[in-house]
Description:
The complex is a heterodimer. Chain A is mostly helical. Chain A is 72% helix and 0% strand. In chain A, helix 1 (3-11) packs across helix 2, helix 2 (15-36) packs across helix 4 and helix 7 packs across helix 9 (154-182). Chain A is globular. Chain B is an alpha+beta fold. Helix content of chain B is 19%, strand content 36%. The A-B interface holds A 13, 15-16, 18-19, 22, 26-28, 30-31, 34-35, 40, 43-44, 47-48, 51-52, 55-56, 107-111, 113, 115-116, 118-119, 122, 136-138, 140, 165, 169 and B 2-6, 8-10, 12-21, 24-25, 27-29, 31-32, 35-36, 231, 233-234, 237.
Amino acid sequence: MDHYRLVKDCLKQKAAAQRELYDLFATSMLGVCYRYTKSIADAEDVLQDGFIKVFLNLKQYKFEGELGGWIRRIMVTTAINFLKKNSRYQTELLFTDEESLHAIASENPKINLEAKELANMIRQLPPGYQAIFNLHAIEGYTHVEIGKLLGIQEATSRSQYSRARALLIQWIEQTEKTSAYAR
Amino acid sequence: MQGEFEKQVQQKMDSLRLVPSEPVWEQVHDAIKKRNDRRRFLFFFLLALLTGAVGLWYFTATNRDATPQHSSVISQKNSPATEKNTTKIIPPATMLPVTTPGGSFKKSSEKLSARFAITITKKQRVMKQAGTKELTSPGGNPVQQSIELKSTPGLTINAAEDKKAINRLLPDTRIDSNTTIVSKDSLMEMPGKQPLSEPAANKASPVKKIASRKWHNILYLQVGVSSYLQGSSLKSNFYSSPATAGSNYGSSTPSNTSPGFSWVAGAGVIKDIGRRIQLTLALQLHYYSTHITVGADSSVLANSLLSLRYYANTPGQDYVNKISIAELPVSIDFQLLKQSPLRWSAGLAYGRLLHSNALTYSPVSNLYSTDKNNNKKDFIQLQSSLQYALGPKQQISIGPLFQYSFTKLQRYGYYASSHLSFIGVQTGIKFK
Lengths: 183, 432
């Protein structure tokens, strides 16, 4: 079934179509939610809230752009709201400079890790770093947009991103080295 | 500006796929359904309000229009002797003495062809009416006198005969061939001491008979079958999902629910609010039942403090879920065809749970339990029926009826997505 028909059927409140839409995007969207949270339970909570928003606001989708992209934006916004609302994340959203950084070998190292391994590394970042890294590196948001979304200065977003990036590269290099020794 | 590192991360993350657990979809589905149910309820609630408002408006508008029409009005045309201040109203009543302008009384045994009224309003004249209070006009305003004539209910107006009779009864009032008599049936609600000054009252209008606006009592009995209506999509998706196959959660299916006997006994009042529309208010007791198959009583697991009983989800014995609800239905009936006493009724009912032994099924434990706290207490229901009236005065009605509860049966568990429904036959008797 094409997306147009699927959306139309969902708008008619057909349960089978709603389930089909969910099945079509749930796995990839859980991947998105997973990157923003610290546990799979939190990721599923975000996914659940996100899909409820998707179904309740589906009539706002005007078939401009990919349906997957539209759903993904809803998931990202839901994830950010979740981080803001959740007290556990809120305290950690205070952007600290506690992470000590070591020199990194390359600015653009080759990543040989599996997707989930890399996602787990991103999830190891402090929540502030994690959100900014996800928003800028993966979703393509500008620092101005991130600043507005998270309620921080553009410069803060920029500097936090640099630190997050450096930290991640450092971890990737370490993991690659360990893997190489193991081989 | 995205570098090589970001592109690699993006590609890796785009390929990341994780399978969510089945309860996520259940929660999403429930939330959407709840929202839709709320919208549907709001829609029907507003529809009911609108229907009620329109009905009320129609009722009051009809009453307002009907008030001046409750009298027979004689308007004089081209009659110089009586064209000033002559309006006559005679309320229907038993035969009473008639006062003539000269003050003498005469008994009238004139029978008019229908009940109607005449009011005589004459300027600066004081007239007495035998057996009633004196009507004076201190300020010199028009004086109204009511003269009561014997009414003959049920007959239609014969204008020519009536004019003759009025002329005989009131010789000083000229009622000639140009006089028009307008009558609208009952004068019970007529403000008899008020002169008819409304322009509408002086205008001729066609003879029209208005239906009785009285409340009638109604007793009725409904018998049929009741069942749980459940979202089939939820059931099929929930239990056939590959994600949950093999896991304890969702691997068990509850017993099929069979419809059970159901009856309703009620009493209410019914009123005509339009020529073909009736309003019905009632109070009824509704007994529902459904059948499921359960296994042995496993109450050894029960918490005695909660007085719960548990049954295994295995074939064994028939269990009857019995539910009693007190309901307050409000419905509007429409006569579908002018010539046929076939009526369609639609309405809403509020229900309050009186008793229930309905079991709760938990897919996690694969057990049934009697958790009374899980039952919802208040119900909003939709009901619709077709009724055919029988009997000489159409006081007996019979026809099919359907009822559906918007409110779900239980708060959680398998039947939390179930709605009580009833289909049956109704027979009722209407009396004054």
